[in-house]
Amino acid sequence: MRFAGKTAVVAGGASGIGLAILRGLAREGARVLCADVSDERLAAVAQELPEAVVTRADVTREAEVEAMMGLAVERFGGLDCSFHVAGASRPGYLVDLSEQDWDFTTDLCLKGVFLCMKHAARHMLGRGGGAMVNIASLNAHVPMHAGAAYASAKAGVEMLTKNGALEWGAEGVRVNAVLPGLVQTPLTKRHFDNQAALDAFLARIPLGRAAQPEDIAGPALFLASEEARYVSGASLLVDGAWAVSGYPDMRPFRGAPGWPKPG
Ligand SMILES: NC(=O)c1ccc[n+]([C@@H]2O[C@H](COP(=O)([O-])OP(=O)(O)OC[C@H]3O[C@@H](n4cnc5c(N)ncnc54)[C@H](O)[C@@H]3O)[C@@H](O)[C@H]2O)c1
């Protein structure tokens, strides 16, 4: 019950990683507001978690973000934690990528996080502080084919996180980022439906499997919790060690790994 008596907003909370965070918060005693653009998914959340406040809000629209944070404060009397999870991408190779697709991806993944941070901070500064968690991606560090807009936006989220930590630390507002690797959610369904693509991913992931949304929610909740009270401006890779596997697997060329000899 690390979040007993706490209040939290999850932006993009009706599916995948956001939904796992929402469930975790509710299980640990928080009063939660779930914001999303999908009415259908919001209705499912309302049914599953009748205590939760659910609201339609598009994180790329400032007035809607402001209203969503205001609603949480109106209903709960304050805001302790805010999770900025909404994200998606319209992929395209740089040479073909349209301005519209660039804007869609960067508006959602980068501007959306900025707007959520700004309006969450307005309820935390001068009111005892709070904790924010931004969901970036391993792609903040690693580029991908046809993913320039997404990777650039996620790299931006990492810097936004550091800037928030710098500007708000003195007021007790902590800001951290989680950088997931491959997670099985509706967003990545196309990879899981394509065995060859999935195998190519798994060959890079030393822990040997993709993450489930709960594998990401745990570290995100930790960062928002009292246990992480001295952690701010940090980026936590939650990727099954994918980030360290850039070098090809040389075992086929070197033989089986040996055991150290006793003595
Ligand atoms: N799944 C992965 O492998 C993976 C890896 C790294 C990072 N991420 C990031 O994690 C976050 C969550 O992804 P997911 O895999 O859970 O995806 P998901 O599609 O399951 O969930 C994303 C949610 O965001 C909502 N959303 C989309 N646009 C929105 C908007 N404008 N305003 C408010 N809500 C909006 C969607 O309706 C959906 O409910 C994203 O930021 C994504 O980039 C995912």
Question: How do the strands and helices of this protein lay out in sequence?
Answer:
Blueprint lengths: L6 E5 L4 H12 L3 E6 L2 H10 L4 E4 L5 H15 L4 E4 L14 H26 L5 E6 L12 H21 L4 E8 L8 H4 L2 H8 L10 H12 L10 E4 L12 H4 L9
Parallel strand pairs: 1-2, 1-4, 2-3, 4-5, 5-6, 6-7
Helix pairs in contact: 1-8, 3-4, 4-5
The structure holds nicotinamide-adenine-dinucleotide.
CATH superfamily descriptor: NAD(P)-binding Rossmann-like Domain
Give me the CATH architecture, please: 3-Layer(aba) Sandwich
Number of helices: 9
Biggest sheet, in brief? 7 strands, parallel
Oligomerization: single chain
Rounded to an integer in angstroms, the radius of gyration calculated over CA atoms is 19 Å
Count of domain modules: 1
SS elements, strand count: 7
Question: What would the keywords be for this entry?
Answer:
Rossmann fold; 7 strands; seven-stranded parallel β-sheet; binds nicotinamide-adenine-dinucleotide; NAD(P)-bd_dom_sf; globular; SDR_fam; alpha/beta; 263 residues
In short:
It is built from nine helices and seven strands, in the order βαβαβαβαβαβαααβα. By secondary structure, the chain is of the alpha/beta class.
Question: How would you characterize the overall build of this protein?
Answer:
Belongs to the short-chain dehydrogenases/reductases (SDR) family. It comes from Paracraurococcus ruber. It holds the Pfam family adh_short_C2. With 263 residues, this protein is α/β, with parallel strands linked by helices. It has one domain (7-184, 212-236): 3-Layer(aba) Sandwich (Rossmann fold). 43% of the residues lie in helices and 14% in strands. The longest helix has 26 residues, at 99-124. The model has no long low-confidence stretch (mean pLDDT 96). It binds nicotinamide-adenine-dinucleotide (NAD). Residues 11-12, 14-18, 36-38, 41, 58-60, 85-88, 108, 135, 137, 180, 182-183, 185-188 line the site of nicotinamide-adenine-dinucleotide.
